[in-house]
Amino acid sequence: MYKFIFCxxxxxxxxxxYCAHRYPEREYQEYWCNKEGGIVEFRNQDGxxxxxxxENYAVEFDFAEKWAESIGQALYYGLTTGKKxxxxxxxxxxxxxxxxxxxxxxxxxxxxxxxxxxxxxQL
Length: 123
Prior knowledge:
By secondary structure, the protein is α/β, with parallel strands linked by helices.
């Protein structure tokens, strides 16, 4: 019984973390991608989905704390689409996000990934 309650608590806390963002990732993605004339949620032949496919880029979106995951996905999507890899990191936490952004910048230079940062975003 305690394991069940513990699992429910973890599930609830995990979901609460996603609710803490100003806007859902999808809203940032749709706004940016539409502005760039891209295709939102482009489906690859293997079933994976590129967050935004533009004329030149396969772009992955993520909140700054998930910088490492975004880099890996962008590299894969660039490879599978034949486009340049791109990442849009969403920074909602000001200077707290700076270490994540700096790490992403290091890898984006090394692996030639174009990196955009969204901060102070208002819909």
